[in-house]
Amino acid sequence: MKRKVIIITVLIFIIIILGGFAITKIAAGAKVKSNIELGNKYLDERKYNEAIIAFKKAIEIEPKNIKARIGLAKVYTLQGKLNDAEKVLRECIDIKENNPESYMELAKLYMSEKRLGDALKILNEGYRITKDAGINSMIKDIKAKIRVENISTTSIKGRPYSLPDKVTVLVDGVKFEVSVSWATTVVDTNQVGMNTFNGKIEYADIPIQLSLKIIGIASIDDISSKVKQGEKYELQSKLTAKMTDGTTTDYSVSWKPNTVDTSKVGSYDFEGTVDGYDKKVKLTLKVESSKIARSGKQVVTINSVTEDNKIVIGDYLKAVGRAPSDAIIYEAGTTSQDLKILDLSRNVSIELLQFGPAQAGMKIVTLEQFKQYINSKNRRSFNFTITIENGVVTKIMENYCP
């Protein structure tokens, strides 16, 4: 009898404990539901901080509650805390991998970040696990909106070319970058012509085609150039090539010889090598004498007269036409570096233009008068005809320049 009483007492105690647990669980469930409803209310009212507090209270009571976590992820998304939202949704999938809503919410998040590939990947994964019709419908809807344009591009013969890892597609007019897998990744650019490559948009199974046109060098013109003796000449570092498609492209060139000596008059040939071009480019450089006759007449500009009786030449001039007044018009011609400064003869004859009310003509002046005139700020012109005999100036005449 005593034993029976003990057993009954124990059973009553167990029932009381289990009942307490049940009551506690029911109360906890009610609190979770209440906090989720409150969180959703705050979410609709855009009271995001209050919504976060409510959802977190629900999660604190029931850590594996998916609805509370999805609600929290939605708040984070609206706040722009996308990394936090992704983390929470990933936790939802870890907690309950057969819950379709977690996959679809994560896909929506990825689409908002223009991560089309990730969105399709997570949806495909979710459908494989859940076989949910909603997920399948979302996959079909996204694929139907994808617009793919085939690619046409050009490369140079012999230059390496890699097929793109990503391409741009449109979804509802919005650009997304997505990964693409190609049937082959080997690209041979050694032959001129058209090559076609077929690929598929990853996770969407949508075909895309890339047309690659390989062009080569059709021709590079030979070069003829001139330089004055003693002047510096730089060999071109790039040449313009005519391509097989009619376009032009600049190429680097290496010359042989790679230096230029202009100290001697003559014609010199240089051979240019361009990568990808099976012919040599020829440069013919003519070095011309820079000497101006040391005897004869020259039209020049005179900058100044030195104390030791030398004239400093600015330019040697050439006639290019006549003004309405019938005066000759000159422009700068060849400048001779070795004849920039000329000696004046001890008996140099100098004639300057003379203008006056009674007469106009030439006036003979002394060397000292000429120095004062040339070196003054009030001189009329810079243009003179000089007579040179054996490299020495024997006569100077001022020219009329209207």
Topology:
Layout: H1 2-44, H2 48-61, H3 66-78, H4 82-95, H5 100-112, H6 116-130, H7 133-145, E1 146-147, E2 151-156, E3 166-171, E4 174-182, E5 193-201, E6 206-215, E7 217-219, E8 223-228, E9 238-243, E10 248-252, E11 254-256, E12 266-273, E13 281-288, E14 296-305, E15 310-322, E16 328-332, E17 341-355, E18 360-365, H8 367-374, E19 383-389, E20 392-398
Parallel strand pairs: 2-6, 8-13, 17-20
Antiparallel strand pairs: 1-3, 3-4, 4-5, 5-6, 7-9, 9-10, 11-12, 12-13, 14-15, 14-19, 15-16, 15-17, 17-18, 19-20
Briefly summarize what is shown.
The protein has 402 residues and is an alpha+beta fold. 33% of the residues lie in helices and 36% in strands. It has eight helices and 20 strands.
Question: If you had to describe this structure to a student in words, what would you say it looks like?
Answer:
With 402 residues, the chain is of the alpha+beta class. The protein folds into four domains: 28-145, Serine Threonine Protein Phosphatase 5, Tetratricopeptide repeat (Alpha Horseshoe); 146-215, Immunoglobulin-like (Sandwich), CATH 2.60.40; 218-288, Sandwich (Immunoglobulin-like); 296-398, no CATH class. 33% of the residues lie in helices and 36% in strands. It contains eight helices and 20 strands. It has helices spanning 2-44, 48-61, 66-78, 82-95, 100-112, 116-130, 133-145, 367-374; strands at 146-147, 151-156, 166-171, 174-182, 193-201, 206-215, 217-219, 223-228, 238-243, 248-252, 254-256, 266-273, 281-288, 296-305, 310-322, 328-332, 341-355, 360-365, 383-389, 392-398. It has a six-stranded mixed beta sheet. The protein has a five-stranded mixed beta barrel with strand order 14-15-17-20-19. Helix 5 (100-112) runs antiparallel to helix 6 (116-130) and helix 6 runs antiparallel to helix 7 (133-145). It is elongated, with a radius of gyration of 47 Å. The model is unreliable at 18-22, 325-332 and 334-338 (pLDDT under 50).
